[in-house]
């Protein structure tokens, strides 16, 4: 009877042990920390601000409210980078609001036909979109912003007009204000009397300092 040759088991055992060790390391490795409220606001602003500098045949905040089906209705991701940034912001599990402070700059006024009846002489805040865990909650959040955020923002109007960024706390919310500057010739052509780097408006982001368990998926948008 011929002798049966047995394959050495040591390499197989070592391979299995290495796989198990690798799996243990992956399980033990800490997950990336969720974005802070400030980081969520900065991530959203990184999506929004470049849109104001595009000559897209739209005026003012209409350049931000693009049609689409992903992320925030009315504030949809267009590029692959924007989609990644929205996912990062939503992965923080922090409800948030995106709003715009219409700010009649000095000197001059809006030269577009979409001026408000009062000539846009008084700044006013317009909630653009909100995001949280349920549709009902998102709508309530947008209504909350409509009734409260303006009084949080207006005391800092002088600094915002100078082009300064402002960050402050309001209850359990981190509120970040980022001026939209007249950085391109196209901006100056649409705003009578504006000079380069004048503040034409302010993006406002209110991000909850508390996290929620469910994913941030439900959204609500204003009329634009």
What's a quick, concise take on this entry?
With 224 residues, the protein is of the alpha+beta class. It is 34% helix and 21% strand. The protein has six helices and eight strands; from the N terminus they run H-H-H-E-E-E-H-H-E-E-H-E-E-E.
Features:
two-stranded antiparallel ribbon, 224 residues, 21% strand, alpha+beta, 6 helices, six-stranded antiparallel beta sheet, 8 strands, globular
Structure description:
The structure is a single chain. The chain is an alpha+beta fold and 224 residues long. It has one domain. Helices cover 34% and strands 21% of the residues. It is built from 6 helices and 8 strands. The strands form 2 sheets. A 6-stranded antiparallel sheet has the order 4-5-7-1-3-8. The protein is globular. The N and C termini lie far apart (88 Å). About 9% of the residues have low confidence.
Inertia-based shape: globular
What's the order of the H and E elements?
HHHEEEHHEEHEEE
Oligomer: single chain
Within the largest sheet, what's the order of strands? 4-5-7-1-3-8
What Rg is obtained from the alpha carbons, in whole angstroms? 25 Å
- How many angstroms does the end-to-end distance come to? 88 Å
Structural class: alpha+beta
The number of helical runs is: 6
The main pleated sheet reads as: 6 strands, antiparallel
Could you tell me the number of beta strands? Answer: 8
What proportion of the residues form beta strands (DSSP E)? 15-25%
Q: Provide mean pLDDT, rounded.
A: 76
Fraction of residues in helix = 25-40%
Low-confidence stretches: 66-71, 107-120
């Amino acid at each position: 009877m011929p002798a049966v040759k047995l394959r050495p088991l040591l390499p197989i055992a070592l391979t299995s042990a290495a796989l198990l060790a690798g799996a243990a390391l992956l399980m033990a490795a800490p997950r990336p920390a969720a974005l802070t409220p400030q980081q969520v606001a900065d991530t959203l602003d990184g999506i929004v601000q470049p849109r104001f500098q595009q000559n897209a045949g739209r005026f003012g905040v209409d350049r931000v409210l693009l049609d689409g089906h992903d992320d925030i209705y009315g504030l949809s991701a267009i590029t692959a980078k924007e989609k990644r940034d929205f996912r990062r912001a939503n992965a923080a599990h922090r409800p948030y609001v995106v709003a715009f402070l219409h700010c009649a700059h000095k000197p001059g006024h809006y030269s577009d036909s979409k001026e408000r009846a009062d000539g846009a002489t008084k700044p006013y805040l317009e909630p653009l979109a909100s995001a949280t865990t349920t549709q009902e909650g998102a709508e309530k959040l947008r209504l909350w912003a409509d009734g409260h955020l303006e009084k949080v923002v207006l005391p800092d109007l002088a600094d915002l007009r100078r082009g300064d960024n402002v960050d402050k706390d309001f209850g359990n919310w981190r509120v970040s204000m980022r001026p939209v500057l007249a950085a391109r010739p196209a901006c100056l052509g649409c705003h009578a009397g504006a000079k380069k780097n004048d503040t034409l408006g302010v993006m406002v982001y209110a991000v909850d300092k508390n996290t929620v368990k469910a994913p941030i998926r439900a959204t609500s948008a204003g009329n634009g």
